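Onboarding guide, step 5: your first structure request.
Type a short instruction followed by the sequence, for example:

Predict the 3D structure of this protein.
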Amino acid sequence: MRGKFITLEGVDGAGKSTHVEWLADMLRSGGRRVAVTREPGGTELAEKLRELMLHSPMEPLTETLLMFAARDEHVRRRILPDLDAGTWVVCDRFTESTLAYQGGGKGVDAGLIGQLSQIVHPGLKPDLTLVFDCPYEISHARVTGTRRALDRFEREGRAFFERVRAAYVAAAQAEPQRVHLIDSTQTLETIRACLQGLVSKLA
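The system replies with structure tokens like these:
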């Protein structure tokens, strides 16, 4: 039986990364084989492209094309082989991120992003997308409260954040059966109970 594909999305600082390993462990405790990966990244080449995208200034279209180049490697070398082998794949970001960040945030045409997605992963959509959502004040405080150097996206201002957030909300409204907004200002216990309920419907 083919594995399920679960993606976690959201603005920087919304807290999605806090739940990736927990979600994978929860699935493993139910007897499933689980692979955890991320975008951009997931393969040696895609990780190198990730470094370029996060830290090197570039045009929005260049950024989008590099994102899909990394995604092509990732899908072909990791995601599809794992799914075909019956493994559940939990991925930190996927194409919804490109629609939100490069599309909503930077104005790259959504139609072009859709065309590229059909070329790179035709017929492949996450079975479940969990979008972690919070206001700018909370996101900004979380991001700037870290001790590491911020990447290009984390250094963007409020207007960019609001455009990205709006794109995620629109995605949830367009596909409410697949894309679910999670209020990440709730307690950890409340959020994880919600995630468990959503994931249980895939079994």
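Each response can be followed by summary notes, for example: The first helix runs from residue 17 to 29.
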